[in-house]
Amino acid sequence: MSTHLPQTLLTPEGKSHDTLKQTRTRLTSTNIVGLVLANTVEFFDFFIYAMFAGYIGRAFFPQGTLFDGLQFSLATFAAGYLSRPLGALTLGRYADRRGRKKTALLTGSLITLGSLAIAVVPSFDAVGLPSSLIVLLCRMIQGFAIGGELGAVTALLVERGPAGRPAMGAGYQMAAQGAAQLLAGILGLALVEYLPAADLHAWGWRLPFAFAAALLPVQFYLRRSIEEVIPSPEPDPRSATSDTRSWIKPSLCSVGMIFGGTVPTFVVIYIAAFGLSGASPSPSFSFAMASAIGAATLLASLIGAALADKIGTGTMIVIARTATAIAVYPVFALLSGRDSQIISVIAISTVAALSALAGGPTLAFILRKFPARHRATGLAFSYATGVAIFGGTTPLIASAIVHTTGSGEKTAWYVIFASVVALIAQRYLRRAPDYEMQ
What are the GO cellular component annotations (predicted)? Predict the structure, then answer.
């Protein structure tokens, strides 16, 4: 595999100035924990929206129309993802030029602003259409912010994370998403169990969003404590057109790789909320399953990253995507004919874990295909575009499959298709040159 190393200035001893700076500023364990905790808080906002989509639909959107409140709520969920690519290009470029830390502080504030607004906006019955529009705007602001968030923070974790363990650095990012889903599920379960149903429908569902907004000072403090050295722009003798191609071409293949991880993630989230057989499970069971999926994702992300640093990121991705494609249909077929909640939790968590094994390795694999001056932008755009096109629309597609066929078993074919596309995209992306990460 060919390797392209960006030009750097050397000391008289033959060492790169950038290498010396990065060695002195490598993230400490406290920095890594802080970044992961802050990411957990931010992704918590998105997961809690998906889990409370039914409540949000009844609160903010009209009922008794061609589309019910749930469909409007899911469409708004998708809109939040469609705004991600714009955030990726805008904030990713800002991160590459002005620093990963500054971008992380900005995105955290924007995401929390959206959560705070959802927690306090009056219902549709109280103010009518403005309620729906405000919620839509909040979701798009959050999507814009998260679009730039992942590229900046993941680049920071990989570039300055554990030496010689790039997959683990990216694995921390994916583990944070699992922790966020686990936290959202636990909090949702607590609300269902301890709040009367009438109170939960009236105002209780707003509490998780208020909780997320209240944590802004915590994540702000955790990220401000990170020291960052912003290197001078690297000299680049190539033309502007060639420079642009250095990240545009890999981005297109990267979108395909993101497709393979996004679809399984959001299919299992949908199943946790709305069931596989078409009959929605109880709220308690939905939140319990979401917690189990979050825990499986958290653990599998770390395990997959650790294995990838030993056997190679490409190899780990192939193993995980192939295993997901092989297992998903038999698992869904098994669940369609069974009512055991324990078996359901174990089986769905297994699918989530198999897919999550490739999470960190996929991000690390993609990051190596971008030079440092485009790294945050390249990953952010690839991830945001893949998630916007395929992730944000997956709940709508899954819902359509369930309503058309009467069962969610056929959603397995969508997962299989996504896994195959990801493997093909990886094969093409492998041909692109690798860039030095440290």
Answer: plasma membrane
